[in-house]
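Problem statement: downstream parser choked on a complex file, so we are re-checking the raw output for the iron/sulfur cluster run. The parser issue turned out to be on our end (a line-ending mismatch), but while we're here, posting the original submission so the record is complete.
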Amino acid sequence: MHVKLHVWRQAGPDSTGRMETYDAEDISEEMSFLEMLDIVNERLNAEGKEPIAFEHDCREGICGSCGMMINGQAHGPQRGTATCQLHMRKFSDGDEIHIEPWRAQAFPVLKDLIVDRRPLDAIVEAGGYISAPTGAAPDANLTLIPKEVADAAMDAAACIGCGACVAACPNSAAQLFTSAKLSHLNLLPQGQAERYQRTQAMVDTMEQFFGSCTNHGECQEACPKEISIDFIAYMNRDYVKAQIKNRKLLGQS
Ligand code: SF4
Ligand code: FES
């Protein structure tokens, strides 16, 4: 295959970025999208030019680091797929492919296709954990959890923190990410003790950085783990409850 790439190049956070064009020749359709970028970078290196900076780690859809906009779509044209799992067979010989970093005010560009996603970490740091000592691993099935609940918690836990939901949202909202990180704890018995403090702290932190949700649903479409916007409804319900329950707790102290 021979494809033409239009890639966002930006030397640093304070530099002015621009689109640059590269020919990617002799590309196998069996290559992953990132392997195609590796080949382009090897050629740029051989010519003494600066390679394209992009983030990646696991290359198997687990770590969430590889996100980029491909032809205006977060993670590219294949649904339920992180950029690293996308293959060149999804494109055709002669295609022109536009590659850009996530576009969101909360994710400033660090270099080329790499953005700073630390606001997502701030949300998790605000309460995305269980602080009570839980002891050693209990025997399986010691705590009975209905299968539907366990399945829903597992679906939420699939979030890899990639930020595609934010990049795809016209409001740059992080509701899908936050609701997934809340739900995988709030649905389970172990998460109940801190459920409402956690919900308030994580939602309040989210609102410091990100826009508001107006139910476009683009986040769900872009999510490589196909996480449902139903979790957002669940988070909103818990947030309303948290306003009352946390006040009651304050009254007792
Ligand atoms: S909810 Fe989906 S799109 Fe958003 S950060 Fe998690 S995995 Fe990525
Ligand atoms: S490189 Fe880890 S999810 Fe893509």
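For whoever reads this later: Residues 56-59, 61-66, 82-84, 160 surround FE2/S2 (inorganic) cluster (ligand 2) (CB under 6 Å).
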